[in-house]
Predict the 3D structure of the following.
Amino acid sequence: MGTIQCTVFTLIVEKNLSAWKLKINMELHLIVLTAVFGGVVRTRVHIWWMKIKGPFYVPIFKPVGIVFATIFGISFFANSLHYGSVMGAIIIGIGYYTVMWGQIREEEEHEDHGVESADFIEKRAPLLQEEMQV
């Protein structure tokens, strides 16, 4: 639905039909490579790691992707780097890793105490369990 809306909006805004012609240049290569990497390679790597390590380890690498995107943007596409952006990325990264560390730590504590996963869900979300019983 979003694609259809964008197409209609763009057809209304852009009257020049020559703007719709694809030009083989660096930007088109970047779009294709991003689609291939983001849609295929990254998804396969995430599924593979999830099978090996579990669901908590895959999202840990999200801030690392932000760092790589920033480095490649500065290196290849002449993007400028601002102090506020760097500080914001650092704060977001620290917060993200703190939350993930807490979730992993909480899961390890429940495993150490011998709490079954069903018991853990019951104690954590009793309202959802009540809805399911009705």
Notes: The two ends are 36 Å apart (CA to CA).
